[in-house]
Amino acid sequence: MLHPDTELRTINDEVGYGVFATQPIPLGTITWALDPLDQILTLHRVEQIENQYDGILTRFTWVNANGHRILCWDFGRFMNHSCEANSFGPGGCHFEMAVRDIAPGEELTCDYATLNLEQPLVCQCGSSRCRGVVKPDDLEYVASTSDGLIRTAFTRVRQVKQPLWHWVESQNKEIDHMLHHPHSIPSVLKHRWLSEQTTKASKSIGS
Ligand SMILES: C[S@@+](CC[C@H](N)C(=O)[O-])C[C@H]1O[C@@H](n2cnc3c(N)ncnc32)[C@H](O)[C@@H]1O
Ligand SMILES: [Zn+2]
User: Fold this and answer.
1) Which residues contact 202 (CB under 8 A, 6 or more apart)?
2) Number of the ligand 1 atom closest to the C-alpha atom of 58
3) How does pLDDT run across 188-206, given as a tens digit for each residue?
4) Does the residue 13 lie in any domain?
5) The domain containing residue 98 runs over which residues?
6) Model confidence over 178-191: pLDDT tens digits?
7) Are 15 and 1 in contact (CB under 8 A)?
8) pTM for this structure?
9) How many domains does the chain have?
10) Residue 16 C-alpha to ligand 1 middle, in angstroms?
């Protein structure tokens, strides 16, 4: 479930669509959370899906720390990568939060290196810190800054409006623990699914 104060906009022919804020989304706001309509596709399930869906699966799903492909039913599947992303999630968790204030008209972005990216992506994020090509093994480099950003965002989690709280409520205790013990917040490195398994996942959709 994507934050409600967002809309889909066209970026260009190559990148396609992106998700943009329609209202201010403050630091610490949950921007996306897994919801019951999102599909969690196990390796076995992916193997059963006909090859004609390979392109859709590659473009619109991301691989979680268990090797499952997540397919968002809403505009969450249109979130683009930025090398200076404004949304990150603690490692292994199925939610993301704003790691800085997001202004109306600003694009909501994540870092694909935290989502078990399978193929390098020639990046058009436009950031002055653009890595040029986003690579699956950028994760350690990304963790060196994103873990600190997530910790700072957590300090605001109970102070800002949280329209997506319902979808993280079952993790209430864990979130409180992370809030009070910032060192317990799992590093984005915990998003990593072992690379040989990722290869297997991509093979299983025929690439
Ligand atoms: C999950 S989709 C995001 C939605 C996509 N923009 C669309 O309209 O279908 C992922 C794809 O978007 C494109 N994309 C996302 N971020 C990008 C970026 N920073 N630079 C270039 N292409 C990007 C790539 O084609 C990527 O495979
Ligand atoms: Zn970039």
Assistant:
1) 58, 118, 119
2) 27
3) 999 999 745 544 455 455 4
4) yes
5) 6-204
6) 999 999 999 999 99
7) no
8) 0.93
9) 1
10) 7
